[in-house]
Amino acid sequence: MQEKIIILDFGSQYTQLIARRVRELNVYCEIHPFNHLPEFDQSVKGVIFSGSPFSVRQEDAPQIDLSLFHQQYPLLGVCYGAQYLAHTSGGEVIPSTIREYGRANLQYIDETHSLLKNIPHDSQVWMSHGDTISEIPEEFEVIASTDTVKVAAYHIKGTKTYGIQFHPEVTHSTDGKQLLENFLVDICGCSQDWTPDSFVESTISSLRGKLGNDKVVLGLSGGVDSSVAAVLLHRAIGPNLHCIFVDNGLLRKDEFAQVLDSYKHMGLNVRGINAKDRFLSQLAGIKDPEQKRKVIGRVFIEVFDDAAHEVQDVKWLGQGTIYPDVIESVSVKGPSATIKSHHNVGGLPDFMKLKVVEPLNTLFKDEVRKVGKTLGIDDVILGRHPFPGPGLAIRILGDITAEKVAILQEADAIYINNLKTSGWYDKVWQAGAIFLPVQSVGVMGDERTYENVICLRAVGSVDGMTADWSHLPYELLAKISNEIINNVKGINRVVYDISSKPPATIEWE
Ligand code: XMP
User: Which among 472, 469, 437 has a CA at the least distance from the CA of 453?
Assistant: First the structure.
């Protein structure tokens, strides 16, 4: 049985970060909202309470039934989690009068407690709270303080329950990882055996058990997630995995042929379908971005469904869903408002009635890459920038024509090749060219031109939620601009997007 840590989420912006740190320590963990408790069985080695935007003193503050696990499993309360435990045990939590936000140092540390093993005196920690624990119940003992926060960390005597009012998961807490490791290893007794290799091994064997001799269809997109999901399934069930890779005519230049080729080299049973004309004809004249997404989503399902029906007796649909999508859909607040209706390979039409298998639905993006590496997947696929499902359709502002797609593909290829040869491709998180619905005057030789504008976009990001525009060198931008204007007929002007997200978004549509 896979041992695990349960992280109960009270709505903090840092909850996912706690999970990532735990996983970096090779311990498997799951995030569950405080109001949807999971089963607490023998596989649970310990529990972590996250922080929260709420104050424990608020009437509508998150509440939880502690009797299910308190003092039965080791427990670490972080920030709100610590204050909640203190508050419900008879301690006092009040609004803090001094600033408890930002860096602080642990002036007092009781090193006899294994939670604080190897944490140096003066260790820097990150505080972020409006309330503070002013009094602790008798059975509590203070085990660390800063010069202003007396109860920086506490222990409930005779138990394995701890609370800390700082955030060990953020990198500003310089010894936060050590503290988490102390909790996981010394206090919970975790064996730190959750690695990409062990994930691959156990996933393949559980997929075999689950799927038996059943057939699975899976739509490949050329992206990291669907590729890794496919290779895992392929390792488990071999030719019973039927992959479908659709050319919607909106991919990067030559990408369909190249990616199809690498899939075949990986031994996947993959069928490439040229549906360019079907997509382009359905998109003709459509300018509204959301409408484009809907049409592409619908046509994709139609094409995929036709192809899937040709596989006899298929029972399962494989998907590359990853953990952040799962957490999002069951989060404390429910799915957050979508700004753009993201179409991904997905959306199962009712009539297909297939069961869904999602081998990556417990992994974060960086873990998917590590698993991909373990599986021997080529860096060309693993190191790929994210690329939106609707592809170039949302990078051509306004209506889409085959001619505009061809122009954008050429310009984009020059841009991306230059990023690769200059070493910038791996330094930016995502890059692409955008075709603007603007014509401007230029001059070439003796002739006046009136042609289109290409915008270059490159951003740094961790997860696409926020992003900064990348500071590409002027010389590189100059080279790319020259090459595009000199080689791509129809373009006489290149601009660079210097907006960050928020308030802008990464894509223009
Ligand atoms: P935005 O433009 O919302 O993009 O800042 C954030 C990330 O999401 C990608 N994106 C999409 N991906 N279908 C997708 O599969 C879509 O409709 C879509 N729209 C945006 C975008 O490329 C970036 O990585």
Answer: 437
